[in-house]
Amino acid sequence: MSNVITKDYTDYFKGRDWVHMLGFYAQDWRKFMTDHNRVFGSGPFFYTTNTFSRLLFYGDEVDCTGLEFHAAYGTWGSHTIEVVEPVPFSVPTMFSEINSEGEPGFNHLHIFVEDLEEAQDACEFLKIPVITVGYPDMANAIEKAKATGTDVEAIKKNAGKASFMVCDMRKELGFAVQLIAPRAQALHNAIIGAKDKWDGSAETMFIPLGGK
Question: Which residues contact 5 (CB under 8 A, 6 or more apart)?
């Protein structure tokens, strides 16, 4: 992110559709998705563990050694759903900032952006606080790329770059937004495509995605 912003980002978010994925926190991701399926018939769910090489919290470096985001992603009607169980919860992230430990709840919605560095500039220009910026652990990212058919070389080219950021729009709008890089599109497509292939059984409801 540049120190001096010369571009006018007044309309940066105008016309951007959300990805139709809602992000939740839960202390037990599998129980959350099992209960969600029982009530709404959602699923199937891809599950994985996300790890990080670097993490920022309101611009400050966070020791993310040992931090794991146990995550599951699946369809909910014509939309998609994500739940994350952060371990340990005490590491400063968007989940410790917004949610109460042990109480499942909504955390954020998602929007694709072309470039996360530019998105950070836009948030600074618009005076929108950025809660968390995450940089993926490369080995973990490559394993998941192979599982979803994503171009591994493209993942390698993005080494050292952020994969997501969460900006805080709670003061004006009451919710947070996770901005994600275009390379996450393959995972989103896999989630949508799995719905029509699923037989609806509990035995096939959870699909390993790779990663740690």
Answer: 121, 124, 125
